[in-house]
Amino acid sequence: MAAERIAVEVACALPDRQIVLPLEVPAGCTAGEAITQSGIFALQPALEPARCGIGIFGQEVGSDRVLRAGDRV
Question: What global pTM score does this model have?
Fold first, then answer.
C-alpha cells in the first residue's frame, strides 16, 4: 500500500514577484523537508537559506512543523 501524500505549496515572495511551487509530499512531511524538496534555492540562487524565515500562511513556524494538506510554506 502506498504512503498517503498531501498537496502543499512552497512560496517565495521576492520584491518584484512571487514564486509558488505546488508539491505532493508524504503525510508527515515537515516544512523544512518540503522546502528542500521544492528546489526553491536552486531556482533562486541569490536567496540565502539562513536568512529566510519559514511561515505557513504568514504565521512563523519552525522547520520541524508537520504540514497539513493545503498548507502554503
Answer: 0.88
